[in-house]
Amino acid sequence: MYNKKKILILGGTGFIGSAISKSLKKNYNIKIFSRAEFGDLRKELSLKKFLSKNKNFDYIINCAAHVGGLKYLARNSADITNDNILIYLNVYKNLIKFKKKPIVINLISNCFYPSKLKIQSEENWQDGEMHDSVESFGIGKRVLVILSKNYDKQYNIKTLNLILPNAFGPGDHLDPERSHALNAIIVRMIKSKNDGDNSFEVWGSGKPKREWIYVEDVVRVMKLLLNKKIKNSLILNIGQNKAFSINEIAFTIKKILKYKCKIKNNRKYPDGAPLKQLSNFKFKKYFKNFKFTNFESAVNNTIKAYLKNN
Asked: Helix H segments across 109-134?
């Protein structure tokens, strides 16, 4: 009988984690650990108790994080920094005594890159400060990469650190302050149209450019990565080296929704870094023939999913 590989998904009921778990459960033996399933990664004993009953994982996919939009990060900065560092410490500490060491796959936001970079390359992730608006979240991701490096060195725990641009797609928070940026615009614009508003407010100047990734593309990359059986630690951007401004995003969503409104920018809100765009040089070496979903089609699919919930 074929023995399915065992995978533990941390944060497996969240936006990206749930998409990955649903897609992998057919071909892999999937276990989930998340707060929605009565687990708390901030508490070392909570994870330790779970792992005492569930062992011999081939992979641990770490999607867990305390995160939100820029307003949420500003208001909860200390809690976010504290919670995420606790989560990452507890994950690695609990793997030390495993005889069979699983490969850890961390999903990392590209906000951990220095804000000065025009193009974000893997070798430059420590070459400067993060933008102040995301520092409370990004610092945890930098700690995570350093942890993974040192746990590999001392305990031979291999880690694949995957750097993601801004993710979007069905299944995110419905609260715009907690959801990812593009999803938040969709949620707010649907409400604005339903309310009959003649204008739509974009938070900030709308000028910052961001790279985006459709959640289903994250899932497809994950499937390919598991089949590649990479055994050495690495840091890898999952990107296209392509970015759109926040205003461009708003106009795309407006067009798909057929919403006749005026886009207004509220400059009282922070912009964040002016550009977040990932180098895809290394990615193309690992995934030579990978084709990302057409951007407008992906946004259209996301809008359809949100409209079903309204």
From this structure: none
Would you list the domain boundaries of the chain?
6-167+212-237, 169-209+242-275+294-308
Burial 88-112 (b: 16+ CB within 10 A, else e): bbbbbebbeeeeebbbbbbbbbbbb
In this structure, how many other beta carbons lie within 10 angstroms of the beta carbon of residue 118? 8
Residue 227, token pair as written in the block: 């089949």
Q: Is 264 left (phi over 0), alpha (psi -120 to 50) or beta?
A: beta
pLDDT at 310: 65
Q: Do 241 and 277 contact (CB within 8 A), yes or no?
A: yes
97 pLDDT more than 80: yes
**Fold (topology level) of 6-167+212-237:** Rossmann fold (3.40.50)
For position 1, what pLDDT does the model report?
Answer: 37
Go through 279-302 and write b for each residue having 16 or more CB atoms within 10 A of its CB, e for each that does not: bbebbeeebeeeebbebeebbbbb
Tell me how far apart the alpha carbons of residues 266 and 211 are, in angstroms, rounded to a whole number: 22
Residue position matching structure tokens 């296209």: 240
Is the whole model's pTM more than 0.90, yes or no?
Answer: yes
For residue 243, which phi and psi values (nearest 5 degrees)? -135, 155
Q: What single-letter DSSP state applies at residue 5? A: P
Q: Give the residue ranges of DSSP H helices in 25-133.
A: 44-53, 70-75, 77-93
**Domain 169-209+242-275+294-308 grouped into CATH 3.10.450.50:** no
φ and ψ of 213, to 5 deg: -135, 130
Judge whether residue 229 has pLDDT over 90.
no
